[in-house]
Amino acid sequence: MNVIITGAAGGLGRALANECGRRGYNLLLTDVNADGLLCLQRGLERQYGITVTTKTCDLTNAESVDEMLAVIDNNSIRFDMLLNIAGMDFEGGFMEREREKIVKIVTLNDAATLRITHAILERRRSGRHFTIVFVSSLASMFPMPLKATYAASKRFLLDFATSLRQELKDQDANVLALCPGGMVTTEEAMQGIAAQGFWGNVTTNALEIVAHQTLDRALTGKGTYVPGWFNRVLSFFGKIIPRSWVAAVVYWRWKCAQSKWLTAEATLAADHF
């Protein structure tokens, strides 16, 4: 099986790359982090003996994507699976963030994901079942004050994945939307989980388990995966409680958490200065 993973050098991307390697899949890994890709490639090839190709690519740049596609076409690579992992967020209220950072969230999470998905669907292996995974978020299921742009961008992916799944049903393809809670992927993510206290701990998902279960569910035809029983309970109540009430509760919780989080970040930056 040939698999392409975007955002492969990040925490969830690495976990999925390792899970694919353990299953014997051949990989094309892409990320903006060239050093991270090289380190991951060496480790996967040494541990699993699979073929791993890497290509540094900025998915938000059409020319960079075209360069990667040229490498794919020149080597006649065709795929059985696309794992759309690349994504980003900037913490803080809407008017507290720089304008271009707000726009960049949507540019990467949505526009870039559409760009690569369309391109790879044109490069699926003929006569084989095709699988796509989109990384949405538990946040996509609620109105999220103080994370409004991020949550909305992930809601777009959830709705798009659900719609595309229906479009591709007759083409021997499956689309799964992964909707995890918190994950220990970066130092910033760990600070965010810690700042939320109890809620951060109970909604956090182990990367290795998420990677394993995501592939299992995608390959058996599932359409949505919310890791963790507590997160599934939250997603259920998010559907039946008035959204204005949910927004008020979420605002209260995130206002407290982000106050601790951003204060800690500022203190850490001052210490390093």
Number of domains: 1
What is the CATH topology?
Rossmann fold
Q: From the structure provided, what is the oligomeric state, counting identical versus distinct chains?
A: single chain
Major sheet characteristics = 7 strands, parallel
CATH first level: Alpha Beta
Strand content: 5-15%
CATH superfamily: NAD(P)-binding Rossmann-like Domain
Order of helices and strands: EHEHEHEHEHEEHHEHEHH
Number of strands: 9
DSSP summary: helix tally: 10
Structural class assignment: alpha/beta
State the low-pLDDT regions, or none. 264-273
Radius of gyration: 19 Å
What report would you give on this structure?
This protein has helices at 11-22, 34-48, 62-74, 99-121, 148-168, 187-195, 198-202, 207-219, 229-240, 243-272; strands spanning 2-6, 26-31, 52-56, 81-84, 130-135, 173-178, 182-183, 204-205, 224-225. It has 273 residues and is α/β, with parallel strands linked by helices. It has a single domain, classed as NAD(P)-binding Rossmann-like Domain (Rossmann fold, 3-Layer(aba) Sandwich), CATH 3.40.50.720. A 7-stranded parallel sheet has the order 3-2-1-4-5-6-9, sandwiched between helices. β4 (81-84), α4 (99-121) and β5 form a beta-alpha-beta unit. α6 packs across α10 (243-272). The longest helix has 30 residues, at 243-272. It is globular and about 50 Å long. The termini are far apart.
